[in-house]
Amino acid sequence: MPDSNVVDASSTSPAGNNGFAAPRTIHARCHACPIKPGCLPADLDSRQLTSFEYRALRLRRPLRAGQTLVRQGDAVEALYTIRVGSLKALIDEPNGTERIVGFHFPGTVIGLAEPEQRYWLRTFIALEDTWLCRIPLKVLDDAMRRRLIALMSERLQQAYRMHLTLACRSGPKRMAAFLLELSADFGARGLSASRFHLPMNYTDISNYLGMRHESVCRILGSMQELGLLSKSGKNIRILDMQALQHL
Amino acid sequence: MPDSNVVDASSTSPAGNNGFAAPRTIHARCHACPIKPGCLPADLDSRQLTSFEYRALRLRRPLRAGQTLVRQGDAVEALYTIRVGSLKALIDEPNGTERIVGFHFPGTVIGLAEPEQRYWLRTFIALEDTWLCRIPLKVLDDAMRRRLIALMSERLQQAYRMHLTLACRSGPKRMAAFLLELSADFGARGLSASRFHLPMNYTDISNYLGMRHESVCRILGSMQELGLLSKSGKNIRILDMQALQHL
DNA sequence: CGCTCCCTTGACGACTTTCAATGATCGTGG
DNA sequence: CCACGATCATTGAAAGTCGTCAAGGGAGCG
User: Fold this and answer.
1) Which residues in chain A have Cβ-Cβ distances shorter than 8 Å to B94?
2) B-chain residues within 8 Å CB-CB of A149?
3) CA-to-C1' distance for B171 and D6, Å?
4) Which residues of A touch B96 (CB under 8 A)?
5) CA–C1' span, B4 to C9, in Å?
6) B236 near B242, Cβ under 8 Å?
7) Looking at the predicted structure, is the pLDDT value of residue A226 above 80?
8) Using an 8 Å Cβ cutoff, are B32 and B62 in contact?
9) A208/B167 Cβ within 8 A
10) Given this model, what pLDDT does residue A54 score?
11) CB A199 within 8 A of CB A234
């Protein structure tokens, strides 16, 4: 029921503006969001972001760790962007098991596979407390759709890279590819590419990579022994990026 | 150099039509294509197809088996649709190996990951003699872009299904998922879902699924022994669809 | 303090890869 | 029409990897 938490900009803005407040108006009303007004999703360049942001509704309360944003099969009414926090995307298989097919971080648009679908194909669950923006589908115009194509194009690229990762039969190779993917993702968002925090647990990682959590543990352990990285709890520090890429 | 083979519709049509011939004019000029004029790519519904088709140039000669349509790194100037035949999509990895990330059949739009990219991210090679349509990027209008979003959305779905397939560690499960994916694809195009021809060899399949070609052979052999399917050469006949789905 | 969830480690077994060799099929050219 | 070569499919045996099952340890929370 995330919709009950939105700051509905139209109710706080002057009449006659088509129901959407100017960005500044939304920002001024956003008490719960720890992001400063100028912080933009990384997916969007500064010019295009304005048009997205202009129509986006900031969610009033964060999604708590473990809470569900949307559930597979729900009707699609909006896209979302992550401002702070992280989500996992999972697909419920017919046999009852669920498979994680993605991890998403700030700046990512949620729902790129669904803009022309009637129902959500995946369930999104917060890995930690997460702040979001909501972009109702009906406010998308042609310019925004054009931007959407670019975002989907990048997401398809990512999916093909994931194919390369998963097609490696060797566990260490898959793990290395996963770490490098995360590293590149963090780096692209202006954070450290060599030192980061894993918001998901080993079971999630193993589910995502198609292995067992024991294997995740062993592989990370052996990588630490080999001097490729060091870890304390969920904090990872990559020591030998080249060696990882060489796998 | 596929561009040298195109039937340039603008040169055969009356002046003053913005350089694009009506579909019938193109069809009339297409001697090499064995498809009758009314045959449409399955990706496109009949209404939307018209706008795509209207701007598409039919390639005069087919791509021969083994020939390359576009190479990874080439500049993107057009999308393609397959009319007859099949392609494999592969990514050249930095270490020199190449990995197959997709097989494509008639009705598919080639280049959905690249519409906003400057360069092709993947290489496309014909598995058999293949006829194509070429859709220059510059003729895309907003209506077609909107349609493109739906196609990309479906392709992303497919990519997530592929994630489910590759995340299965068991060889037989991956093979079953692969066969069912193919079966559904053929069925959706009006062909038999239980009896079809594999245009790719075992090495390609194993590359795609992340295993060895010996394993592909053994797994298909055991499936035949179990009565799940029968094969003669590259012709596959699925005998027990439910059992495959149960994996 | 005790519960739960998660991480860690060990031993065994099943499966896939690897390496090697043979057989089948197809296209080409003599 | 046949012989040849190349590519692909097939099968066997050995070795390595990962999954499985089991148990113990640690961190966080009420």
Assistant:
1) 245
2) 115-116, 145, 148-149, 152
3) 29
4) none
5) 63
6) no
7) yes
8) yes
9) yes
10) 53
11) yes
Note whether A124 and A109 are within 8 A (CB). Answer: no
Contact A193, A184 (CB under 8 A): yes
CB atoms within 10 A of CB A104: 20
Closest nucleotide to residue B232 (Cα to C1')? D9
Whole-number Å distance between alpha carbons of A229 and A241: 9
- Average pLDDT, whole number, for chain A? 78
Measured from the Cβ of residue A12, the count of other Cβ atoms closer than 10 Å reads 12
Distance CA B180, CA B190 (A): 15
List strand C contacts in B 150-189 (CB < 7 A): 170-172
Note the pLDDT tens digit of each residue in B35-50.
Answer: 333 334 444 444 444 4
Amino acid at A126: A
Q: Which residue has the tokens 């202009």?
A: A54
Please, which residues 105-164 of chain A have a Cβ atom closer than 8 Å to chain B? 112-117, 121-122, 142, 145-146, 148-150, 152-153, 155-157, 159-160, 162-164
The tokens 């997205």 sit on which residue? A52
DSSP B184-244: HHHHHTTS-SSEEE--S-HHHHHHHHTS-HHHHHHHHHHHHHTTSEEEETTEEEES-HHHH
D19 C1' closest Cα residue: A212
Condensed to tens digits (0 to 9), the pLDDT of residues B171-226 reads 999 999 999 999 999 998 888 899 999 999 999 999 999 999 999 999 999 999 88
- C-beta atoms of A162 and B167 within 8 A: no
- The HSE-up count of residue B165 (CA atoms within 13 Å, CB side) is 26
User: Which strand (E) or helix (H) includes residue A142?
Assistant: helix A142-166
Q: Does B45 touch chain A (CB under 8 A)?
A: no
pTM over 0.90: no
Cα–Cα distance measured from residue B91 to residue B76, given in angstroms and rounded to the nearest whole number:
16
Task: Give residues with Cβ within 8 angstroms of B202, minimum separation 6.
Answer: B213, B216, B217
What is the identity of the amino acid at B201? Answer: N
What is the spatial distance between Cα A233 and Cα A60, in angstroms, rounded to a whole number?
A: 31
Q: Is B166 on the interface with A (CB under 8 A)?
A: yes
pLDDT tens for B90-127 read 999 887 889 999 999 998 999 988 877 789 999 999 99
Question: pLDDT tens for residues A144-203?
Answer: 888 888 889 999 999 999 999 999 989 999 999 999 999 999 998 888 889 999 999 999
**Measured between alpha carbons, how far apart are the two ends of chain A, in Å?**
43
Residues in A 144-173 whose C-beta is less than 7 A from nucleic strand C are 169
Taking the stretch 215-244 of protein chain B, residues with Cβ within 7 Å of any atom in nucleic acid chain D are 217-218, 220-221, 231, 234
- Chain B residues within 8 A of A210 when measuring between CB atoms: 166-169
Of the CA atoms within 13 Å of residue B126, those in its CB half-sphere come to: 21
